Structure formats: structure tokens, C-alpha cells
Amino acid sequence: MILDGKALAATLRTETAQETAQFIQKTGVTPCLAAILVGDDPASQVYVRNKEIACQKAGIKSVLHKLPAETTQEELEALIDKLNADPEISGILCQLPLPKGLNETAILDRISPDKDVDAFHPENVGRILQGRPRFLPCTPAGIMELIRRNNIETKGKNAVVLGRSDIVGKPMAALLMQKGVDATVTVCHSRTSSLADVTRAAEILIVAIGKPKFVTADMVGDGAVVIDVGINRTESGLVGDVDFDAVKDKASAITPVPGGVGPLTIAMLLQNTLTAAKQQFASRN
Ligand SMILES: NC(=O)c1ccc[n+]([C@@H]2O[C@H](COP(=O)([O-])OP(=O)(O)OC[C@H]3O[C@@H](n4cnc5c(N)ncnc54)[C@H](OP(=O)(O)O)[C@@H]3O)[C@@H](O)[C@H]2O)c1
What we know:
Layout: H1 5-27, E1 32-38, H2 42-58, E2 61-67, H3 73-85, E3 91-94, H4 104-110, H5 122-129, H6 138-149, E4 158-162, H7 169-176, E5 184-188, H8 195-200, E6 204-207, E7 225-228, E8 232-234, E9 237-239, H9 244-247, E10 253-254, H10 262-284
Parallel strand pairs: 1-2, 1-3, 4-5, 4-6, 6-7, 7-10
Antiparallel strand pairs: 8-9
């Protein structure tokens, strides 16, 4: 089975658009995402543009703050403070990577946890781990939707997460181990020994390492569910971290790249922005 992330993302976005319309009708409040883009990295510009278009389609307002690469830490922090205090702004997103010289951790920590729709703030990461999230981490939450809506069983399954980044690997492992999801989780990284033995034992294998076609057929067990988070630009186009053509005959289900996990991330960002607006409205009323 090919796990179609593009189709699911369209469904999720339609659902969010409907919920947003209901929320606006009930409260008179339009959810609004503030995006901050520092410098002129072309890939970041495309990502931010796509997020703005997705907001528009869902009936969510978006405001872009485009700052020059020479922006200082103090200037960026002052903008974040202003957005934190602005009642019109539901969510704040600071596009990464930031130009050299800016302290990324300090900037992400500065965003109010109530408006942290990427769920990167340590308070939100802690809440995710404890199973009482304010917002769900976008890429891992998109993967959980893909798993659930394709009726893939997780309870008692051996799930292996390849990669331990703060954005994907760690929060993915946190979601899979929660009560109700109930997977038995192993996290692998660049120091893992006998990696292929570990990945071959996975009933659910989630790969986020940023190495084109790294996972080959001999690293995958028969009938495994394989989720490829990787987005790698190569001479032959966009490829994932999994050698799709070789692995697809062994896997019971697999995500393609593109059209797998990628489109789900933005869909979950929209959902988080609506959630932020709902939470802020409830706390004010
Ligand atoms: N679909 C989406 O929306 C989405 C979202 C985010 C990221 N991505 C893509 O997902 C990929 C991973 O992104 P990321 O931000 O999680 O990456 P990252 O921060 O670079 O982390 C990569 C992880 O992979 C591990 N790793 C690297 N080489 C390895 C090897 N040979 N064997 C075992 N582990 C290895 C690293 O181990 P160490 O910790 O030991 O160094 C690290 O934990 C990238 O292609 C990125 O573009 C896609």
C-alpha cells in the first residue's frame, strides 16, 4: 500500500477550513499566523510562501515579517515580544534556519508557549512528553494522522525511529510511546551499532536522517510499514531517505517522496494555528 500523504493533507486542510469557518462565525475572531523570515534563503522563501497560501485557503489570516539577513538578535527578539503581546496574532512561526550570528535556541525560547505553533518551546516539548500537549509537533503529528487514518495498528508494535532531531526524531518517539498509541519504541542515530539489525526488526520504521536513499531493502523486514520523512534535493530530483523502488516490494505500506509526509506538516501547522486561536479565545472569555 502506498500511503498517500498528499490526499490526506487535502482532507485535513478541508477539515481545518470548515472548523475555522465555524470558529469565526461563533466568535468573530479570525485566527492569524505571523511568519518571520530572516535573510533570503531561497528554500525558506518557498516554505514560507507555501504556508501563507495554505493559511489563505483555510480562511486563516497570515502576516509575513520579512527581515534582512543583518537583523540583530535584539531586533528579532523585539519583534517576537511585540507579536507575543499582540492579541490579533494567534500563532508565531520563525522560519529556520536563521542566518549565522543569530542564536536560534534563544529566539525559539522567546516565542510565547501559547503562540508556539511549531511546538518547539521547551515547555511545549515537555507537555508533549507528558501526554498533555498544547500543540502537536507538526511533522510527527502528520505521521500519526497518516498511521491512524490508514488503520495501521500501533499497539504493542515494534516501532523504530531512525534519527533523533528535536524537530522530527525525538517528538516522533514521544508520540509513539504515549498511552493509547502504545508502540514499543527504539530510537537510532549515527552512533547506533548494528543499525540494519535494529531497523530489520521494526514493524513500523520511521526514517528522518537527511541521507538520500540511505535505507535499502536489506535494512527492512518483510511486511514493515515504512515512513520516509527525508527530503533530499539530488541531481535526479527530490528523493527520500529510503530507497523507495527497492523497499516498496518488501514493505506492507510505504510513503512516497514527494507526496508522503511533506504535505502533512503544513496541514498540521494550520490545525495548530486554529487550536491556538481557540485556546486564546477561551482564556480571554
Ligand atoms: N517532511 C517534512 O515536512 C520534513 C520536516 C522536517 C525534516 N524533513 C527532512 O527529514 C530529514 C531529517 O531532518 P531532521 O531535521 O530530522 O535532520 P537532522 O537534524 O539533520 O538529524 C538527522 C538525524 O539523523 C541521524 N543520522 C545521520 N546520519 C546517520 C546515519 N548514517 N545513521 C544513523 N543515523 C544517522 C543523526 O544522528 P546524530 O544525532 O547522531 O547526529 C540525527 O539524529 C531531512 O531530509 C529533512 O529535510 C522533512
